[in-house]
Specification:
Blueprint lengths: L2 H7 L1 H12 L6 E5 L4 H13 L13 H7 L6 E4 L8 H11 L8 E6 L7 H6 L1 H5 L4 E8 L7 H4 L3 E4 L4 H10 L4 H10 L3 H7 L3 H18 L5 H11 L3 H17 L4 H18 L4 H12 L1
Parallel strand pairs: 1-4, 1-5, 2-3, 3-4
Helix pairs in contact: 1-2, 3-4, 9-10, 12-13, 12-14, 13-16, 14-15, 15-16
């Protein structure tokens, strides 16, 4: 995302960080809560540190360093993501060992941890000392969609910036990219980031999950026994954790769109209980069947 787009998406936060850069007061550790622009802001700040042709404090977006950072290929900007829904302690310990070293291309380093709420608690705790006492010119950005799941000890040692979802802007963008209003609205309400929304637009398997989730909710409202068969169908389609999470989020959004119905409010409550069971390692199909059992 170019800085003009970032400024349009998060104007207040963009202006705040330009002032911080102007005053040379960039902190060593930030928590970006909410994913609408958080990753792009972290990359923007990394570019501002490494750009070789800055305009004032703003990166040029055209030099080798800026392009490599945008593509996730710059050696002194390390991107960390969960693998199988977790960021393991070993991976963070590798990162910690890098904190005491200078960067490859300069003295500076940037570390960007996506979905930081998925760090193992031991992994998060291993970062505390380096956040408090950075031994080199290292900057770390924690990105999360759920601030409350970040360890309080991490939250208290970082500067927190909130990146609120700009839902109307996202709906407009998705319509411009070819979605009809109904689909654009659902996708905007469901997505945790603009990048996720853009990724799902043309993903046929996602829209199949939407269609089958809509059918399940319709049958649950009508208390049809066929709901059991529909759960089995959804379970076969949602064959990994990411897709299962998508189904739960789709159903939550669909319930939210019709929340004035008392029946839908009851279904939503049971759906949230099913999510808790799933998060506690009950199988997706069993958690969903438990919900259906309560509903019909």
């Amino acid at each position: 995302m170019k800085q003009e787009q970032l400024k349009d998406l998060q104007p207040e936060q963009f202006d705040r960080f330009v002032r911080i850069l102007d005053q040379n007061q960039l902190n060593h550790a930030y928590l970006f809560s909410g994913l609408f622009g958080g990753l792009d802001m972290a990359k923007f700040l990394a570019k501002s540190l490494f750009c070789t042709d800055k305009v004032g404090v703003l990166p040029c977006e055209k030099c080798r360093n800026c392009k490599l950072i945008e593509e996730g290929e710059f050696p002194d900007v390390t991107m960390i993501k969960p693998i199988n829904q977790i960021i393991k302690t070993e991976r963070i310990r590798e990162l910690v060992s890098q904190f005491s070293q200078a960067g490859i291309e300069s003295q500076q380093q940037v570390f960007i941890i996506e979905q930081a709420e998925k760090m193992h608690p031991n992994a998060a705790n291993s970062l505390l000392k380096v956040i408090e006492e950075p031994q080199s010119e290292a900057y770390i950005f924690f990105l999360t969609s759920d601030e409350e799941k970040i360890l309080p000890t991490i939250r208290s040692r970082t500067q927190i910036f909130h990146f609120k979802k700009q839902e109307e802007k996202l709906i407009l963008l998705l319509e411009q990219l070819g979605l009809v209003k109904k689909k654009a609205t659902l996708l905007a309400q469901l997505s945790l980031s603009q990048a996720e929304a853009e990724k799902l637009i043309n993903q046929a398997s996602f829209w199949t999950l939407v269609d089958e989730s809509e059918r399940l909710l319709t049958w649950l409202v009508a208390k049809k026994k066929e709901s059991y068969l529909q759960v089995a169908k959804l379970a076969s389609l949602a064959d990994d954790k990411e897709k299962q999470d998508q189904v739960l989020r789709i159903l939550e959004v669909l319930c939210g769109q019709d929340i004035l119905q008392a029946r839908v409010r009851v279904i939503l409550q049971d759906l949230l209980e099913a999510r808790k069971m799933w998060q506690a390692n009950v199988s997706f199909q069993n958690a969903m069947e438990y919900m259906v059992l309560k509903e019909i």
